[in-house]
């Protein structure tokens, strides 16, 4: 019998115990994977390296809109290639379903976001039809919208000139993402800013967000500083950050979840360590005479230690890998269920951290019993002392 | 039979110290489950009770029709004045209606200890009557803002969670400086806000009207009278919502989100704990195989043996549950945190570990203990006496 075979055979001697232990390890790792990916959302801070787009908003808060007159000023900053803007419409579909709806300038938006893919004639129709609207594939599929339909959409903020908050738009196009990660984010609806601005009761040429597309080789950090310095001490002070930071700021607003997540992780791991550690200790205790026999047969202290440690690693590895796979699956389900809003991506990095955690865990639970097995004196052990 | 059960259980329980390691696995496993469960729900309970305490039954919030939240609502100056004059609004001692036009603006403050993560904070411009409608609001440091000046008073929750708004600090909004002149406490969601004079806010933010108007109701039928008077007015399209309803409707989504999170995490952890408990109890039964067989041989029935194993599992589970509840209470009760509320601004609230939550945690631990004890108990009761004795 090979050494590996021996370890496997030992694991299957007490089937119930091995299976139960693996199951409890499995249960811990979906939590580990999901919480770790949550944690990484909260703790990540993007930097300016590699940024191709910046978002400029009012410094006081993006809910205070800035006048469109900032657009030419932004475009005059060296390193800025193109500027688009968008305004939150507060779209509501049917009774009370919120739809992410933004009023944008179609041509500018198309230039700044090449990631949104749609036939060119649909982009043209969006730009040339005042009452036009385009919808992301995910939204259109969800509500069964077809190109050519008139879509009634109310706003929970803006009444039209006649006081009514019920609007209607012509769906002229359905856009998709250019790759997998963008495809998952097609959950917004865009309408024509010109029309919106003219038809709503308080139209005054303003927008919440200005998306600044950088030219090749532009220094994102420097551009952001220049923009904010330009508007300092004016009523329209700005805050400019990278697109990634801007997106993260929404998630981070959820607040102290990061702290709570770490507590849960701690509780789960502590519990797990104890369970598996105890099982390993027990299995060594029960086999003391056997280990002594092995030593009598000529196995070295080192290989006896190896046997016990391998069992611990095998238990943790099997359970951990299955658990992490479950986490990946669950994360993808959450992402799909929330329409890509909540990206619980159990990615390669989290797998790497997970595997490291598995190894550390197997050392923590396996080392003490393994050392005990190594130190066994044959005579004492056989005598049951 | 009862005396047999007591006798066997006694032996089991007394021998727990000799097998403390596997027993501890059950206790700690369940402590983990109950602590996590209680802490998560204590968060939901704290949020809910904070918002519930904020709303009064004799005050109504008037917003533009279909707005749902103050952030989305906007009323022009004329509408604000019309609303204040509605029938059903209480008239104060000075002969003016007890009503406050309020304007909601969002400002960004940094979370304490962070240099980067800005959070949305409500800045509320109010009329003097706002203080009449929130008698629980007390200025505890400094003084109230002076109408006409760019002065702010800041809720205690804001000063606890966010930096840059302590007494004497200057908050910069739209190119103008605002001095913090007072700190207030109210024990509810108002504490998550910065307050100032509405007229100063109007001029600084270039607005003329307000976001909403709060009116104090004139008796129990006040709400109906205000509704009738405002919806009958062709110049207005507004919603009239009792303040308490306005706030409690905001808790629904948070409660659901936390409920789902707590559910998923607890189920996964509970499964882990069940497996651990099964493992420990099987081991406990196995090490006592001879003992159980001996008992059976001298005439003890199978049922008392089964019951004794179950009772042991339940006792350990209960101990774990209690430990978990204590951990949750010590670590989390009254812990101050903040999260995004319905107005897209931060609401500061405290965790509340209530007796009801502790009871639910204990029920969960008992259920897990029962599941974890049952199969091993059955195995113990069914163990053939001869096999058990032969292990000698």
Give structural notes:
The complex is a heterodimer of chains A (385) and B (392). Chain A is α+β, with helices and mostly antiparallel strands. Chain A has helices at 3-11, 15-43, 70-75, 106-112, 120-128, 137-143, 180-183, 193-199, 220-230, 243-252, 257-286, 288-296, 301-337, 348-375, 378-383, and strands at 53-58, 66-67, 80-88, 91-93, 97-104, 116-117, 132-136, 150-155, 166-177, 188-192, 206-207, 209-214, 238-242. In chain A, 54% of the residues lie in helices and 18% in strands. In chain A, helix 1 crosses helix 13 (301-337), helix 2 crosses helix 13 and helix 13 (301-337) runs antiparallel to helix 14. Chain A is elongated and about 95 Å long. The mean pLDDT of chain A is 86. With 392 residues, chain B is α+β, with helices and mostly antiparallel strands. Chain B has 12 helices and 13 strands. In chain B, the strands form 2 sheets. In chain B, strands 1, 2, 3, 4, 5, 6, 7, 8, 9, 10 and 11 form an 11-stranded mixed β-sheet that branches. In chain B, a hairpin with a 6-residue loop joins strand 2 (99-111) and strand 3 (118-126). The model of chain B has no long low-confidence stretch (mean pLDDT 89).
